[in-house]
Amino acid sequence: MKVALMQPYFFPYIGYFQLIHAVNEFIIFDNAQYIRRGWMNRNRILNGHKESIYINVPVQKAPRETKIKDIVINNELDWKANLFQQINYYRKAPNYAFVSDFLDECLYKNTSSLSQFNAILLKKVCNLLEIDTKITILSEKLPMISVANAADEWGVEVCKALNATTYINAIGGIEFYNQQKYLENNIEIQFIKPVLKPYKQFNQIFIPGLSIIDVMMFNHTQEIKEMLEIHELII
Fold it and tell me: Which of 6, 43, 169, 226 is the most exposed place for a label (fewest CB within 10 A)?
């Protein structure tokens, strides 16, 4: 059994979904400390002139040590209307009408929990792309795992609890993780390196790594499903 553990990102880039697709169970890591100006409440889309802009979910102020699961969305701001204004730039994209309706369905959910909200979005995108990976939330699935001796041991604890044989992490953690800790627990650790296939974004130079929203605007579902397979697994 292969598992991954990641913070819940807001409409993340295709590489995030490649990671979900590569495992049997994807655990949303909501016990971690919330990181300001990270990817949990914002992402990037096109805005013309070969540039990108941020779309974001406003959150209420909280102490620095607040966990992701306790971060509250500031729904007093009309941020959803602002997001739709921002995606208006894509109005001439081939899949604009479809994606706009899809986003309307996604954003209809009116929850105040950022973690729960992002979980809903991830599941909806995965359902659209026919990714059948089981998605669960750490604080709900394994409430007994509330702390770890070291930051790189969360994966060990999750794998042991689920009897998983393989832990897959984003490539950014390859220098951070002590792989010996995993081997000592009979867990194989791998790192996924996304390959971001270029696609036509109007008539401008391709900007990689944008939100899955951008990918969906220019690529049909089958094309995106093929992109999910384009990656490297590094042992």
Answer: 226
Compute the half-sphere exposure of residue 57: CA atoms within 13 Å on the CB side of its CA. 24
Residue whose pair of structure tokens reads 């791998």 in the numeric block = 190
pLDDT less than 70: residues of the chain = 49-50
- CA-nearest of 185, 214, 181 to 197 is 214
Report CA dihedral (228, 1, 146, 126) to the nearest 10 degrees: 30
The amino acid present at 70, given as its one-letter code, is D
Q: Are 156 and 187 in contact (CB under 8 A)?
A: yes
- Work out the angle at residue 11's Cα, subtended by the Cα atoms of residues 28 and 13, and round it to the nearest 5 degrees: 95
pTM exceeds 0.85, yes or no: yes
Q: Residue 5, SS3?
A: strand
How many Cβ atoms are within 10 Å of 106's Cβ, its own excluded?
Answer: 18
